[in-house]
Specification:
Elements lengths: L1 H7 L3 H8 L2 E4 L22 E4 L6 E4 L1 H5 L20 E5 L17 E5 L4 H8 L8 E5 L12 H8 L3 H8 L10 E5 L18 E3 L19 E3 L10 H5 L6 E3 L19 E3 L9 H5 L6 E3 L11 H5 L3 E3 L10 H8 L1
Parallel strand pairs: 1-2, 3-4, 4-5, 5-6, 6-7, 7-8, 8-9, 9-10, 10-11, 11-12, 12-13
């Protein structure tokens, strides 16, 4: 990114002699930049910025801050060149103009949206990404995975979240029929729209940090393998988890203090479960007896005095931790990429 900023500061004549009206970007500190047209105020003669075809991931990070590009533009002022074949986009703290053109990414498989200032506008545009099939990750706040607390409403009020508009916008995600992984983390919604039940190819869903969310409309998934519902303050295992009893491999229900885990034992394919931060675990030995269970994450105070033949044989590992043995969750992968 610094190389591009330095380039933009070069004298006009030197800049024009080298690049004319088109600028080709191969790599800038391992970051590819989305092409803009007629938005570079410093050198208006540069009308096209092209991505190198070698890039298969577009990472837009603090773009408007680095290049002094206006954050908002009227329709028609900006257009993207050559983005149809991109397969991965990461939007971190991006400017608002990006949202209007999400539908241009015809082959997009992977979309990560973090800390976007116009978050509500994202939802409608995602409905155009019909081929989006790897994963969609949305996190509107800079929030670390934290212990259960009762101040979530206050946090959302301070951030000015419009819960109703987000719930309406999320319906568009129901159009992404090939989507396999969906992560809606800490976006402040109270209800999952019924339209999301259309995502029959879904393998992974993460609804963490949406405290008090109503999961009644989440149902009908036939292929779910990984579910994460940390810090959502539910009192019982949702029906969509029970419906996935023949496919579910990993389940994270950590930091839901009052959740009743009675029905966990019906998840016959379950290999890993995170029970950290749960007050009452009355049927722990029944869970340990499950045929496929390989790893249980649990608070250290609840591990005292636990004896089981599967632990002695090494078939089952009991540990206090935050990471998965069988599945790397998206926020961990994203941190590594950064």
């Amino acid at each position: 990114m610094k190389e591009l900023v330095e380039l933009m500061r070069k004298p006009k004549n030197e800049y024009d002699e080298t690049y004319g009206k088109e600028l080709y970007l191969n790599s800038i500190n391992n970051t590819a930049i989305l092409p803009y047209k007629e938005v570079i105020e410093t050198y208006p003669e540069i009308t096209n910025i092209y991505l190198s075809p070698m890039w298969k991931e577009v990472n837009i990070q603090k773009l408007s801050d680095e290049l002094d590009i206006p954050r908002y533009h009227s329709p028609g002022e900006t257009e993207y060149i050559g983005v149809e074949n991109e397969v991965a986009v990461i939007m971190d703290n991006t400017c608002g103009v990006v949202m209007r053109y999400l539908g241009e990414f015809k082959e997009l498989e992977k979309l990560i949206i973090v800390r976007n200032k116009v978050f509500d506008n994202i939802m409608e545009e995602t409905g155009k990404l019909i081929k989006l099939k790897k994963f969609l990750y949305m996190n509107n706040q800079v929030v670390k995975i934290r212990q259960y607390s009762e101040d979530a409403e206050e946090i959302r009020r301070e951030n000015g979240d419009d819960v109703e508009s987000k719930e309406l916008g999320i319906r568009a995600i129901g159009n992404l029929l090939y989507l396999e992984e969906l992560e809606l983390v800490n976006i402040g919604i109270k209800e999952i729209p019924e339209e999301l039940s259309h995502l029959q190819e879904l393998r992974t869903i993460n609804l963490s940090l949406n405290e008090g969310i109503d999961l009644t409309n989440v149902r009908g998934y036939k292929n779910l393998q990984h579910v994460k519902m940390s810090n959502i303050d539910v009192e019982e295992i949702p029906n969509f988890v029970i419906e996935s009893k023949r496919t579910l491999k990993t389940l994270d229900i950590s930091n839901n203090h009052s959740i009743d885990i009675e029905y966990v034992t019906c998840l016959t394919k379950l290999e890993s479960i995170n029970l950290r931060g749960i007050k009452r675990i009355n049927n722990l030995h029944d869970i340990m007896d499950m045929s496929n269970i390989k790893r249980i994450y649990i608070n250290s105070d609840k591990m005292k005095g636990i004896n089981h033949k599967k632990i002695e044989s090494g078939e089952l590992i009991m540990q206090e931790g935050k990471t998965w043995a069988e599945h790397v969750w998206l926020e961990e992968e994203y941190e590594e990429e950064k």
